[in-house]
Write a structure and sequence with these properties.
Chain lengths: ~250, ~220
């Protein structure tokens, strides 16, 4: 079953066409990594997929339901507010900069949305949060405030916050880019755990080795279009000059 | 001319000063938030009116505003207001004036919030009002406390302008005694009153800031 499907997504900022027609789909239980140079459109793709930005043209579907639809190649028409609210529950997003709520402790960061949005009881939300914290190795941090945590811990909290809403699909926007190399590992480990549990994930990343190990499929984006798509094996043994060049830059680091 | 006499006289004026202070804060703090929403509105006409309002309130003397508010019912509606309207006019003018300053302070706080906080709320499915009330406003409050303290202290001293409409607060009382008894003493004592009042204001605001320091 397709959890996410994007058809011919286009997005411009003024005269600058950032996405020039991207189509992709993600099946249940699949891990898709998106790689590409800075300014290639990866982040815009993720922002349009999560509806933080509206795309100009194209279709966006979650679980085969239209969130936005281009009729005869025209501008995308988004579904009604109520429909979108429901559709948005399909996915969660983990930000590069965590974006935790600084005035809430860890537990409240995680329970706020399930209580407010899903309407579950405080008790149930806290039980759910605690078992997530347990799983992510943060059991003793539930009453800490974000500023008291390391970047890696903050990112794990933000993963717990996203998971607490029990999404079908989790997006990651360069989840380790704001972290020191020594803290990157603990976050990647958590994501690997999730992959083992067959969590459906779309990960924008610069961690090539990680993408190689973890992904079922990798998409290389450059210049606003998908240049190469394939299994990690295919990607890392590519003939495509741009992709080769891109991977080479990372191998030399 | 006893100190005791001066103190009881000033004390009565001081009650009026405190009343002006409290009523002004009570109404201008929330009104300022409404005006700041207007100032940030996407609707051109609302934004423009709010901007104009803030511009006039900040650009003209509070003393003049007091007079305008007091005489407006007569000149605009032809209404004769009794002398009890003097105090009401003082409060209305102070509230209108301070709301403009507070609005700009709130706007500064709200616009300084990182966009990531809004985006996190959006992705988590929080509604706009939930986002503002539970996530944005508490953080804004912490950020705007220092400038709010500034304005609040200015307000304490501005209350003396009420004399323009013959509302007898502490400073007016002090001046009257000083004139009739030809002594500076009442004015100096009034100064001490203002200072102590402001010290209390500043210390309570500082306490509030400290209380919000549980996060960064």
């Amino acid at each position: 079953m397709k959890v996410l499907e994007i058809r011919n997504m286009k997005k411009s900022f003024g005269d600058l066409e950032v996405l020039k027609g991207i189509s992709l789909s993600v099946n249940e239980g699949e891990v898709l990594s998106i790689i590409g140079p800075s300014g290639s459109g990866k982040s815009t793709l993720l922002r349009c997929a999560t509806m933080l930005d509206n795309m100009d043209e194209g279709d966006l579907l979650y679980l085969n339901e239209f969130a936005a639809k281009s009729i005869n190649g025209g501008n995308s028409i988004y579904s009604s507010k109520d429909d979108l609210k429901r559709i948005k529950k399909t996915f969660g997003l983990v930000f590069q900069n965590f974006n935790l709520f600084p005035h809430y402790n860890v537990l409240k960061n995680i329970t706020e949305a399930p209580i407010l949005v899903d309407g579950i009881s405080k008790k149930e939300a806290e039980d759910r949060a605690k078992s997530l914290l347990d799983k992510l190795g943060l059991a003793n941090k539930s009453s800490a405030f974000p500023y008291q945590l390391s970047g890696g811990q903050q990112q794990r909290v933000s993963i717990a916050r996203a998971l607490a809403l029990q999404p079908k699909l989790l997006f990651f926007d360069e989840p380790t880019s704001a972290l020191d190399p020594e803290l990157t590992g603990e976050v990647l480990k958590v994501i690997k755990e999730l992959a083992k549990e067959k969590m459906t994930m779309v990960i924008v990343t610069h961690e090539m080795q990680f993408a190689k190990e973890l992904s079922d499929r990798i998409i290389f984006i450059d210049d606003g279009i998908i240049q190469v798509e394939g299994s990690p094996k295919e990607i890392f043994s590519t003939d495509n000059v741009r992709l080769k060049d891109f991977i080479g830059k990372f191998a030399n680091r | 001319m006893s100190i005791y006499f001066i103190l009881t006289q000033l004390g009565q004026g001081f009650l009026t000063t405190i009343l002006i202070f409290i009523l002004t804060l009570l109404f201008s703090l929330p009104l300022g938030l409404v005006v700041s929403f207007g100032r940030m509105s996407k609707i051109f006409i609302i934004r423009t009116i709010s901007k104009l309002y803030i511009s006039i309130m900040r650009g003209t003397p509070l003393m003049l505003q007091l007079i305008v508010v007091f005489f407006a019912p007569y000149y605009v509606f032809g209404l004769q207001m009794g002398s009890s309207f003097r105090f009401t006019a003082v409060i209305i003018a102070f509230v209108l004036n301070y709301a403009a300053y507070f609005a700009e302070i709130y706007r500064g706080g709200i616009e300084s919030m990182p966009i990531g906080q809004y985006e996190a709320c959006k992705v988590l499915g929080l509604s706009k009002s939930q986002t503002f009330i539970r996530i944005i406003l508490p953080q804004v409050f912490k950020r705007v406390l220092p400038p709010l303290t500034n304005e609040t202290i200015t307000l304490v001293k501005d209350t003396s302008l009420a004399f323009v409409l013959s509302v007898v607060e502490m400073f007016t009382t002090a001046k009257q005694i000083a004139a009739s008894e030809t002594t500076m003493l009442p004015l100096m004592i009034a100064g001490v009153f203002y200072y102590i009042f402001n010290l209390i204001v500043a210390l309570s605001m500082e306490r509030m800031e400290n209380r919000l320091n549980y996060y960064r």
